[in-house]
Fold these 4 entries.
Entry 1:
Amino acid sequence: MQLNAVDTAARLSVAPMMDWTDRHCRIFHRLMSRETLLYTEMVTAPALVRGGAVHLLDYSPEEHPVAVQLGGSDPEELAQATKLCVAHGYDEVNLNVGCPSDRVQSGTFGAVLMKDPGLVAECASAMIGAADGVEVTVKCRIGVDDQDPVVVLPNFLDRVTGAGVRRFAIHARKAWLQGLSPKENRDIPPLDYPLVHRMKAERPDLHLSINGGIHSLDEAARHLAAGMDGAMIGRAAYHQPADVLMTADSRMFGRPDPFNDPRDVVRAMLPYIEAHVSAGGKLAQVTKHMLGVFAGQPGARHWKRVLSERAHKPGAGPELVEAAMMELA
Ligand SMILES: Cc1cc2nc3c(=O)[nH]c(=O)nc-3n(C[C@H](O)[C@H](O)[C@H](O)COP(=O)(O)O)c2cc1C
């Protein structure tokens, strides 16, 4: 398989997570890894096209390589949304076929689309037609409800590949559309890594990333050794960002790591924080994504407590971040 620069970055990616992987979070993650592919939160095509909420696509140039995730199920609307994403300069446009939340189900998009691979193929084809050569990818589950993943997943991949998609991220568990909350749907349905590994073995021409329950770079590396093209990490990257991202460049990409000490990462965030606060933003909007950076280190609890209790207060700024770091060993 011929890899382009974004495929290469997808060796490791931080998963799209609503309310978590916003632009502040991505700036912070990007400081720790220059190479890892970062995903936006899901942006819905109706919000962009009908609601005119194009500001949802704003990001900073230093976030590259960065992929935008779209939610939707109307091919024409997704095509228009894709055009907007491409005009903003995103490196990839990803379609969400994995998110089980009620709100998303009511608009017929997200994981419920696993039941309609023909519609996903139509959506993907319309998006590719509008993408001006920017890669269109799909993030999916292995199935939903009482579907049999062994039957459904290969069929889904083949139908959507037929529309021209060649890169997928697969969350290796089913979603139950009734009866489980979105949070439970990320934990309760069992993971089936062997099935996803087999999809890759049987489809060497596709670029497949595996997602779900990967806690560390060691685990990510094991999936790559098993033949996967990429590992996508969500919650662990958010809650232990330094553990997952600070050595990602050397371990996953053979490149030098930007920082060895999480305190230096925090210091490097200060100018960004200063600019954000000066422009009228709240400190907590940025620091809420940084609470886990010292996870496992002495003083980590103090760091978290100071920021959780005080960063939302009026006037809080970079000096609070420096003060919160004082107790660290
Ligand atoms: C807070 C939160 C929000 C999420 N939002 C999205 C989303 O917008 N789009 C999506 O495809 N997946 C979303 N997910 C699912 C993640 O992308 C990922 O598939 C899931 O958490 C499993 O990976 P993990 O075990 O590494 O966390 C979300 C997960 C969390 C925890």
Entry 2:
Amino acid sequence: MEDGREETIVVTGASSGIGREIAIQLAEPGRILWLLGRDEQRLEDVAAKVRSKGAVAEKVKIDLADLKAVDVFLENTFPSGSDVDWVYLGAAITAFGEVQDMTGEDWDKLYRTNLLSPVQMARHFYVNMIERKRGNIILISSLAAYAGYPTATAYATMKAGLLGLYRSLCYEGKGHGVSIFHASLGYVGTGIYKSAIYRKTSYEKTMKSIDRLGFRILPASEAASKIISNVKRGKSEFAIPGYAAAMKWVAPRMPFVITAVHRRIMKIYRQLA
Ligand SMILES: NC(=O)c1ccc[n+]([C@@H]2O[C@H](COP(=O)([O-])OP(=O)(O)OC[C@H]3O[C@@H](n4cnc5c(N)ncnc54)[C@H](OP(=O)(O)O)[C@@H]3O)[C@@H](O)[C@H]2O)c1
């Protein structure tokens, strides 16, 4: 509760993984959590947990890739003057395979879900927030935004787009009392791999390849608590866990390190093909 008033928090991707954990961890009396996702049953499960912690939960079953429907939802539910304090934009999908094996439809799906949708949500809430001169928008992104990710090229492309949004909007927002955050994650153990699009590769091969790379896979609950604590401390651009923070720093300064990782990704991919 801020200044005795209820806080409103919007979480996209609240039905699973990191978004689910963020919603549950943020739940407390005096907070209203808007939970957006597609899977009604999983959304209800999160809503029940949020309510059990004393917060109000509003479930919204919506396909964020349907930008026209989302426009109607945003205009009706959060019209101009709405007071929203925190917006966590976590919804995304991923896709594995080499570019020549991906379809235009695959790219379009990732474009709408992972880039156009967060841009649409961020724009809508940003405009409301600058009217009230307060608010926070958190873009849940990836180390791939800085480093790229061969065999997940469409995903890396969209996340790099989010980085562009962050690096520009955060300066515009400063003058209006609105804060923008870019949270980059390394590997996190969530459903995103099971539900990914696979072209000439598979879930099993991809998980084997991630395992061989040897990076730590963070539990979703830990990823969520680290995102929340960084945001609370006002850290606007950060990467988690430690190896992701190191690679974010290294990517523009010592690109040969990233080249070595990418060569390894491709080597393992071809060995498993
Ligand atoms: N897991 C990782 O290793 C990792 C690494 C770096 C960054 N990230 C980022 O972390 C964020 C959360 O991902 P996660 O790992 O927690 O994945 P997840 O468990 O698969 O959760 C993804 C969420 O996005 C929602 N979503 C996807 N497409 C949607 C659509 N068209 N309309 C509405 N909701 C949609 C899903 O809803 P439904 O299930 O209801 O469809 C789900 O709630 C993403 O932005 C992801 O890129 C994850």
Entry 3:
Amino acid sequence: MLRRRSLLKLLRGRRSIQVFKRARMPDDVARLIVEAGVRAPSYLHLQEYSIVIVADENLRGEIAKLCEGRDELIMNAAAIFLICADLNRPARMLSLLGHPNVLRSNKHPVESVFAVFDAGLVTAFMIMAAEIIGYGSTILYHPMLYPSEFAKLFQLPPGVTPLILLCVGERGESPPLRPRLPLDLVFFRNSYREAGEEDLKRYIRELGDAMRREDYVRKYIGLNMDYLEYLKSATTFNDELKKTYDAIEKFLKENLMRF
Ligand SMILES: Cc1cc2nc3c(=O)[nH]c(=O)nc-3n(C[C@H](O)[C@H](O)[C@H](O)COP(=O)(O)O)c2cc1C
């Protein structure tokens, strides 16, 4: 019971850490984290993910170049894991069974979505393992933004999609817990209840206030703007975003999504 309580405490107190003291993780500790990660459930035992640890300092430098403005975080993190959705290995495994397998077809929406789901679960388990050992962590989304560049850098074969970087390191900051939607907006009893507009507005205000108190945008993104303005700028659909998204869509259609 005592152990259960302390794990709950760890979960409830978790927040992303983006300032690390410069350190490097011993290989056996990184292995321990991945061993815990792969205990996550996975669709049909297929483990539709792959994890690549960055062990080469030159490679780390190349990654820093692709993650604009995050050099310090990348260079200081004790370990950087590239998390990929992987349909290559499962397709090869199923081929060995000698049946007309779905991953060799042009229609595998379930396997595509669950590859991302499997990768998310393994990431969550790794985050918690890192926390238990005493490390902090954050996720960077740049592999999803530049899949071709990351695929080339890590020599990923077709069917393997780079999703995120999980950066794990020795904590160099102690940020506050970030806001979450009120539980009754995400957790329902028996049937879905759509949030009222006032509830959503209140939460948006709370989010903006909390980010302002933390000076989040200036501190982590290096911009002098309000968080809600930043949120808007990051989600504005314009020609530039369309061009980036067209390239991502092409990559995903070739390597992950077959609908
Ligand atoms: C899919 C995904 C991508 C993310 N990408 C980034 C990122 O590129 N940069 C970053 O600073 N944080 C990133 N994060 C972390 C979130 O910003 C963070 O979880 C959120 O602000 C809530 O803060 P907390 O984790 O401290 O509670 C990402 C998280 C997820 C799940």
Entry 4:
Amino acid sequence: MRCVVRSWRMLFKLGLTVIVLVAVYMYYAIDQPESSNTEEESNPHLPQESKDVQTHERAENKPEIDKASDWAGHIHIAVVVCGDRAEETLVMFKSTVLFTVTPLMFHIFTEPHLRKHFQEQLAFWPEKYRQKIDYQLYNITFPEQEGVKAEDWRKLFKPCACQRLFIPDMLRDIDSVLYVDTDILFLSPLEQIWSLFSRFNSTQLAAVSIEHEDKAIGWYNRFARHPFYGEVGVNSGVMLMNLTRLRASTWLQSVQNYYKEYRLKITWGDQDLINIYFHYHPDQLYVFSCELNYRPDHCMYMSVCKPAEKLGAVILHGCRRVWFEDKQPAFKAVYKTFKEHYLGGSLRYELLESLKRNLQSAPQSSCGKVPNLFTRSIENYLDSREQEKT
Ligand SMILES: *[C@@H]1O[C@H](CO)[C@@H](O)[C@H](O)[C@H]1NC(C)=O
Ligand SMILES: *[C@@H]1O[C@H](CO)[C@@H](O)[C@H](O)[C@H]1NC(C)=O
Ligand SMILES: *[C@@H]1O[C@H](CO)[C@@H](O)[C@H](O)[C@H]1NC(C)=O
């Protein structure tokens, strides 16, 4: 969602910061899924008897204390959904269950009128996939604080964008989440990014990727009127958050203070506040590589995310509405494929094949020309799974 708009008068520059080591390490360090069953079979690790249609939403008055223990061992996804973003969010959810073995917990912060939509759509999933997930819906709420009204937070950038700053305080029983914008698609198992938590040193409490690979076209370094992280700032569309550590830090107090101090200088809402925070606390941030938050910016002029050329885009970020508009036909083709994919259909013969077909028939674009950019990750996943079987 948050993707800084770049000036067209960019300079092509060859000196690129390539984080190859991280990428190569990650490639070999992927935790292979423990289950080798194909998507056509049922998963022996999951209970088979509960065939009754049940809602997976937890009763809201359930004691908080149960949650943490129930949901330990899950991968927790947090997402904030307002306006017309529900559809792409459901496609994002679908992409999470295709490749991931670990049970998933979705924390959905949304407007009251969208609650029913999520309940109905998720209940409609085939049983095998519904069993993999649990979810909880939350209202959008902001703290009332001296000098900053809840209404001010709502008005900053987009109606509910800043909600995520307060997730540590709202999910008090949850240790860690992967926060994603609604316009994200996972092209590989979530275990891969989740495993980065274990690489945090003792001071790191969150992980993101940087905003640009090329300083010459960076937005923050050229235009920002507030402090930002590092040389080019960070993109917060995919963010690992260790909530336990965030709660123990000055995070909540600090972002509210930065808001008061910089409110008139902020362009991109919550992402700017996150940049300001990590400007002052650089030791608390783990920076991951660009293929884990792959955006049109990485290929629209030239290919600047080198790890993705080798590994493929691992997590795709369709910022600036490229899922729906015609600016980036290759990104649009990927979204269309995931949207139309039927849960339970073969990943190799249906998902991957239609992806290739849709990419081929999309109008030419600079991003579409990077070989295997959008398919490599899925192919690698399918190949590794097949190797396991033999
Ligand atoms: C969420 O907000 C709606 C409308 O404001 C309200 O009716 C509902 O009770 C709230 N739910 C929770 C769990 O706070
Ligand atoms: C988050 O930090 C806490 C406190 O340091 C630690 O106990 C926990 O294991 C961390 N969570 C993850 C997923 O690494
Ligand atoms: C953790 O890593 C960050 C980023 O590399 C660094 O700034 C910080 O000093 C490290 N913390 C410790 C305790 O080593």
